[in-house]
Amino acid sequence: MVKTLLEAFENKPNPFNAPKFEVGSTPCEPIQETQISRRLGAAAASDDYSCEFGSTKYYTICGFGGILSCGLTHTALVPLDLVKCRIQVDPQKYKNIFHGFKVTLAEDGVRGLGKGWAPTLIGYSMQGLCKFGLYEVFKNIYSGVLGEEKTYLWRTSLYLAASASAEFFADIALAPMEACKVRIQTQPGFANTLREAFPKMKAAEGMSAFYKGLVPLWLRQIPYTMMKFACFERTVEALYKFVVPKPRADCNKTEQLVVTFVAGYIAGVFCAIVSHPADSVVSLLNKDSGSTPLQALKKLGPKGVWKGLVARIIMIGTLTALQWFIYDSVKVYFKLPRPPPPEMPASLKEKLNAQ
Known about the structure:
Number of helices: 15
Order of helices and strands: HHHHHHHHHHHHHHH
């Protein structure tokens, strides 16, 4: 299915770039699609891009950037994630983030902080592939449906819809490894490695053990990803408009990546708050076999779903900023087209002026 989508939109012109109108032409007279493609191809060659926007190579490298950005960052933050999960499922024993680290070090030593690193690396690499790669695909598809003017006017809704669609598939790829990770981290004595946890869970509960947390995972990750992408895109736009003293075209690559990191951190803080209650439910579900989302929610209570929020804000803020930084760095390294912040199409400006 993904391959079909990629082929269908290969070499599709960039809907977030310059308006599709020629200077000196009849007002509001659109250029033919073939003219646009040739012009974009020439621009790509002159800017020394490695491929055209919307090509199969473009989407493939975006997916690879997603693998690196999600897989590496989540694995690096395993110790913090472990303590966060333990606070959520056993707040009496792990009272706060500092006490959680103290108890974990006392019981398991330094090596204990790395529990769950293998399912984290595998699961979130697969998630990153789908999250970032399919986001680019769906953003292009939905933009083609809306048309140029509505793409600009409804761009926030476009970001929300594209990211939600991508995360739906990303969570299906993530769910089995997420279940193993949480079981390793929160159930002492169950298993210390992925090789131990996976067969034990399968033998005890069958394949349903790996997907019973999928719906809560969607409830956690889809709002998180919608906030992550929409907030990031609009924050970048606002930073270049109100904070950065020069247009993005005049900024060097280092300055652009700094803006990416700052916008990513701001987006991450909001992501953590929006998705935290569902994250608490997922952690408890994967710890307690046989429980349902409603049972887990009832057990946690209104206050319990917010346990571990500080740890999650620190974790997700840092993680989201690093993810966007790595993802954008991959685009820079492989010389992919990187569209500037959206600009109002000329046709829309003319309509507004006429009114």
